[in-house]
Amino acid sequence: MIFIADISGERLDAFVARVAEGVTRSAAQRLIEEGYVNRNGKPGKKNDKLNMGDEISVEIPEAKPVEIPATEIPLEIVYEDADVLVINKPKGLVVHPAAGHQEDTLVNGLLFARADQLSGINGELRPGIVHRIDKDTSGLLAVAKNDLAHTVLASQLKDHSMARTYEAIVCGNLKADSGTVDAPIGRHPSDRKKMCVTQRNSKSAVTHWEVVARYRGYTHIRCRLETGRTHQIRVHMASIGHPILGDTVYGHKKPELGQDSQCLHAGILCFAHPRDGHPVMVMADLPDYFKNVLKKLTPIE
Q1: Does residue 118 fall inside a structural domain?
Q2: Of 48, 54, 83, 134, which one is the catalytic site residue?
Q3: Fewer Cβ neighbours under 10 Å: the N or C end of the chain?
Q4: What is the C-alpha separation between 7 and 3, in angstroms, rounded?
Q5: How many whole angstroms separate alpha carbon 238 and alpha carbon 252?
Q6: Do the domain assignments include residue 25?
Q7: Taking a C-beta distance cutoff of 8 angstroms, is the pair 30, 20 a contact?
Q8: pTM for the full model?
Q9: The pLDDT of residue 121 is above 60
């Protein structure tokens, strides 16, 4: 594919993501780094500043299978059509293979159940994962079954039109009935496995919350993500003094009420269908672990 630069000063990776259909900014950077993008006949760099009239050639390589073993893992599929499926992920299930989890992740299960029905995009067969949720967060996760669905859903994530609503139990009693945390999130300066509210090397992050029910010492809340940063709800609620119950990373260091991982559930997922734009809303009931914690709490009348 050949494109002509129409804006002077635009970065090469931004240009490729803008003009090449189905290519995200991160995918454009990978294509450039792997030598699939030329500027005026020479390999380009992702931060090259273009001049008006520059000729940009982009090659999209054939998809190649990833070397991830398929594993038979029970998956609760709560919505499925020809383009998208939505999984209700249980607490404790890792999404992507990583150190210590090579064959027991959601991706392994998807490759076993739907190996020939997942998006192959950016030159690598990726098993459809459009967004992630933490290992110990339960709830809904969208999976793309083809490149069109992957591209459209990723675009909805980027422009915040995909609505994701979570339920959580937080420590303490929130004074207001609703509120918004608008605070940028970046890597923790001394612990690279953690995130934090910071102005340094951060991205904007917005979480809207409302009280569902009040209990002695705890509050059941519902959160709506406007952005989708790593550990966003966990970091934001901790930053206002109300960490999520059981979150020993960002909250109280000792388990409470038998919970040693966060009480956080992705309960509602809304998006425009990638094929024709019709609205899709998927809901997942609170899991047993969450309900059992609520039973232990004393309501405030």
Answers
A1: no
A2: 134
A3: C
A4: 12
A5: 10
A6: yes
A7: no
A8: 0.77
A9: no
Asked if the model's pLDDT at residue 120 lies above 50, the reply is yes
What is the distance between the alpha carbons of residues 36 and 72, in angstroms, rounded to a whole number? 36
Average pLDDT, integer, range 221-247: 95
Place of tokens 């994701």: 164
83 classed as catalytic: no
Between CA 266 and CA 137 the distance in angstroms is: 7
pLDDT confidence of residue 22: 66
Output the CA–CA distances (angstroms, integers) from residue 108 to 39, 82, 94, 102, 128, in the order listed.
38, 20, 10, 8, 12
pLDDT at 228: 86
User: What per-residue confidence (pLDDT) applies to 123?
Assistant: 44
CATH number for the domain spanning 194: value is 3.30.2350.10
d(CA 54, CA 129) in angstroms, rounded, equals: 34
Structural domain count of the chain: 2
Q: For residue 236, give the H/E element and its range.
A: helix 232-239
Picking from 28, 58, 88, the residue at the C-terminal end of a domain is: 58
Residue 13 sits in which domain range?
2-58
Residues 16-20: what's their mean pLDDT?
85
Tokens of 43: 């390999």
- Cα Rg of the chain, angstroms: 21
Cα angle value 214/204/164 (rounded, 5°) = 50
CATH number at residue 21: 3.10.290.10
- Please give the distance of CA 74 from its chain centroid, rounded to a whole number: 22
> Is 285 within a domain?
no
For residues 54-79, average pLDDT: 82
Sequence-separated (6 or more) residues with CB below 8 Å from residue 277: none
Residue 120 is classified by DSSP as E
* pLDDT score at 122: 45
Q: Where are the strands (E) in the chain, listed by range?
A: 2-4, 37-39, 42-43, 55-58, 77-80, 84-89, 120-121, 124-125, 138-144, 163-171, 178-182, 185-187, 195-197, 202-203, 206-215, 218-225, 264-272, 279-283
Q: What is the pLDDT of residue 167?
A: 98
